[in-house]
Structures are given as structure tokens and as C-alpha cells.
# Entry
Amino acid sequence: MRKGQLTKIAVFASGSGSNFEAIAEQITQGKIDAEIALLVCDKPDAYAVKRAEKHHIPVFAFRSKEYSSKQEFEQVIVKKLKDAEVEFIFLAGYMRLIGETLLEAYPEKIVNIHPSLLPAFPGKDAIGQAINYKVKITGVTVHYVDAGMDTGPIIEQESVRVSNDESRETLQAKIQRVEHELYPKVVKQLVAKTVKEEEIDEKARVN
Ligand code: GAR
# Structure
């Protein structure tokens, strides 16, 4: 990290991109010392891409079927991330397992948000799973990404109460309200921690 420069991050999304926008807005308001250098999106028609354009954030949108393997498209993504000097990756509704190529290029620097209290309800439709189980409490988890499906060390969690007459839509709205507060908070903390660690390293190098 160069003195006086913002930490560059990337956000990966596949859908609406409301979490991406929550982070982008806090950055615009000067609440997080970071810059979103790239939005990576595996669905070129996703609304997340429109949100990025509105914020003048560069986008790499791709279709996985245009590549012969995950390794091939992840190599392209890594090149784009490195060219943009990205230090941290935040997955925000990116509905793909991260492969070895990205994990090796960004060890302990990839973070995900998931709409349940992991390890409960990993994978797709965590909100639907919570409704079907009739759980009384679910929530949101932010965690480091490893090779598993919604596994990896947990960074932060927040609970959400499920009412008796809860529908998928009302629960999703409650969860997203929590996500839009929690994710930017974690982004801010991790970016600040990285800057501090780099300053300590730099001091040690100079002395
Ligand atoms: C979010 O609720 C996020 O937690 C979930 O996708 C949604 C994306 O919404 N992610 C997962 O389920 C990952 N397993 P958004 O596109 O509006 O940010």
C-alpha cells in the first residue's frame, strides 16, 4: 500500500448488487478509505452492472460458458485484479465457488457475505431454507473464503428474528437491511487493519 493512497478493492456480484451499492455509497461518503477498482460480474445483464456504471466503477462482466474451464476465466480475472492493483476481494451475491486460481492469488484476502447464521443453511436459497425449517432466529454471516461452499473462518455475524407469519420476501428484506449495515462495516475494519499491518511492515523495513 502506497502512502496516501486508498486501498483498492474488488466486489464480485451475480445479481441485483444491493450489497455492492451499500459499500460503494459508504465509500462515496468518505466513510471507508477504499476505492472499488473493479466490479466482477458473471452475469453481464445483472442489475449490479448498471449500479457500477452509475457509480463510474469499472466492470469486468463475463459469461462462464465462453471459457473452457473455471481456471481459464479465473486467470483472466486475476490479471484484471492485479492490473487494477486490487488488494481485497468482497463477494456480494457472487453465486460461484471460488477456485484455486483466485484463492492462490489472494490468500486470506477474499471475503463473502451469506444470508444465514453459518454453518446453518449454506449454499443456495439460505432464506428459503430458514423458512422451511421454521427457525426462529437466522441472520447474516461475513466470513473468509476457502475452497468449500460457504465455509471458512467467520469474521462477523448478526442475528435476525423470524416472525411466525414471515414470508420469504419479508425475511429477505430484513436480512438485506442487516447486510447493508454489516458488510460496509466489515469492509472498513479489514481495510483499516491491512493499512495498519502494512505501516508496521514498512516501519520494520526502514529500521
Ligand atoms: C445477498 O443476500 C447475499 O447474502 C447472498 O446473495 C444476496 C445478494 O444480494 N449471497 C449468497 O447467498 C451467497 N451464498 P445483492 O445482489 O442485492 O447484494
In short: Strands lie at 7-13, 34-41, 59-61, 88-91, 110-114, 137-144, 154-161. The first strand starts at residue 7 and ends at 13. The chain has a mean pLDDT of 95. Residues 13, 15-20, 92-93, 113-115, 126, 150, 176, 179 surround glycinamide ribonucleotide (CB under 6 Å).
